[in-house]
Amino acid sequence: MKLAVFDFDSTLMDGETIDFLADELGLKNEVSAITEEAMSGRMDFFESLTTRVALLKGLEYKKVVDICKELPLMPGAVETITELRKMDYKVICFSGGFRVGTSPAAQKLGLHADFSNVLHHKDGVLTGQVGGDMMFDFSKGDMLQRIQTLMGVSNEDTLVCGDGANDRSMFTYASKKIAFCAHDILKKEANIIVDTKDLTKILERI
Asked: Among 102, 151, 162, 196, which is most exposed with the fewest C-beta within 10 angstroms?
């Protein structure tokens, strides 16, 4: 058995979920700037996540769901996941973003599972709070280790793919470390670098 783990925002999905949500409140530029600080490794991920989600307070949850159903998939995502499944990979998504976005995409892509965070909402609107599986810089690596143990998959049979600083923790536990249209901080730790916005390009390198 082999395991492939993909980041969601700017990897399987073309953009940042939280930017699409912030745009509804006229806060896209402010939120995007914080995202850039986190993905470049200049800001602690937990701090950046909670700060950005707090700015979404008051956004109607139904609007959140509607936006997340229509998030654009990265070019080549469907084809790449299909091919990996044919190669006997179990394909999973780890996201520092939100399940309201990853779950619909997981169904469209045919992923085996998705692990992400949950936007807290009450009385039909976001409260500005968040919790879940992927809150910290170390979360993805921690979850990867646990899944490898559960499935009996070695580092040698593990592929990981991401674009930002919070994907680094996965790289320790995988033989194939793919930086996809990534920030320099992740490229430094990758052994496969793809700078073309087409996920099928990774199939040529694995």
From this structure: 196
Over residues 126-151, the pLDDT tens digits come to: 999 999 999 999 999 999 999 999 99
- Quick one: tokens of 159? 């592929």
pLDDT confidence of residue 125: 97
Residue 113, SS3 per DSSP: strand
Confidence of residue 97 (pLDDT cuts 50, 70, 90): very high
pLDDT average, residue stretch 52-75: 97
Question: Residue 6 carries which DSSP code?
Answer: E
Q: How many domains does the chain have?
A: 1
Domain range for 142 is: 2-204
Q: What is the mean pLDDT of residues 3-7?
A: 98
- Tokens standing for 199? 């996920």
User: What predicted TM-score, i.e. pTM, was given to this entire model?
Assistant: 0.95
Q: Long-range contacts made by residues 151-158, C-beta under 8 angstroms, separation at least 24? A: 151/1, 151/3, 151/90, 152/1, 153/1, 153/2, 153/3, 153/90, 157/1, 157/2, 157/3, 158/2, 158/3, 158/4, 158/5
Instruction: Give the CATH number, domain containing residue 173.
Output: 3.40.50.1000
9 is catalytic: yes
Q: Does residue 104 have a pLDDT over 90?
A: yes
154, 170, 191 from 176: Cα distances, Å: 12, 10, 7
The amino acid that residue 104 corresponds to is P
CA distance 92 to 128: 27
